[in-house]
Write a structure and sequence with these properties.
alpha/beta, Rossmann fold, 7-stranded parallel β-sheet, two-stranded parallel ribbon, 8 helices, 13 strands, 40% helix
Length: 257
């Protein structure tokens, strides 16, 4: 079975490709890095030739709302058209828990459009909606430049990227669900609390400030905007274990110096 991973050079894509190759499947990494561009269609038909499953974990190069709208609509249409032409039997796409309630944000509207294109494509599909990645929250903290970083205190149930990749691999091995499924981490926190723990662990002297008006991809969050529903699949890796594991390379680098 040939599986094409769109966004195969990204954070989730790399993990997914590694997982799938352990099962001895033919896995094709597709991204501009590998000469496949879903926006311009360069290399797309060739990548999907003889593919049975396509997994789309790509993301817009820009998180700006208008740019994201253009990316997800154009990329989605091109990818699905190429999938129909190639006879793809299962289209799996990674999306976001809570997207339906956050459509005031152009980014979330773009992800919703992507989902709707998949639903209307005629190709059997599975939409995997994930909560926030631990890695994403860590990036927000480490990439900030201000002495104080305002972050929403909304409730979150974050998940490790490795657990997201495992869930996507399970979807590949399963029959199409033809609906959305949710996956979340095992613990519930306030987002600013997670950010504070990450900043402390990395010895970052900046202060995390809980701000109910802080924007998340351009949306102002209600307390439960990002929480999964009752039927979500719950992953196993806990935040403290992920944080300890993620710090090990940094500690090793310090010891070497």
């Amino acid at each position: 079975m040939k599986i094409v991973v769109i966004g195969g050079s990204g954070r989730i894509g790399e993990r997914l490709v590694r997982n799938l190759r352990q099962e001895d499947f033919r896995v094709f990494e597709a991204s501009p890095t590998f000469g496949v561009d879903t926006v311009t269609r360069v290399g797309l038909a060739e990548a999907l030739a003889d593919a049975e499953v396509v997994v789309d974990v790509s993301n817009s190069p820009s998180l700006d709302g208008e740019a994201a709208l253009r990316f997800f609509e154009t990329s989605g249409r091109n990818l699905l058209a190429a999938g129909r032409a190639a006879g793809v039997r299962h289209h799996v796409v990674l999306s976001i828990v809570g997207v339906d309630g956050l459509l005031s944000s152009d980014y979330f509207r773009a992800k919703k459009i992507q989902e709707e294109l998949v639903r209307d494509s005629g190709i059997p599909f599975t939409i995997v909606r994930s909560t926030q990645f631990f890695e994403f929250i860590a990036d927000v903290v480490q990439d900030g430049t201000a002495r104080e970083i305002p972050i929403s205190p909304a409730l979150v149930q974050p998940i490790a990227g490795e657990d997201v990749a495992d869930t996507l691999a399970d979807a590949v091995f399963s029959d199409p669900f033809n609906a959305a499924v949710e996956v979340a981490g095992p613990e519930r926190f306030r987002m600013d609390e997670v950010a504070t723990e990450i900043a402390t662990a990395y010895e970052d002297g900046r202060r995390i400030v809980a701000d109910v008006h802080a924007r998340y991809f351009g949306a102002e969050l209600a307390e439960r905007s990002l929480l999964p529903g009752a039927g979500a699949h719950i992953a196993s890796l806990r935040f403290d274990d992920w944080l300890r594991d993620s710090l090990q390379p940094a500690w090793a680098a310090k010891a070497a110096n």
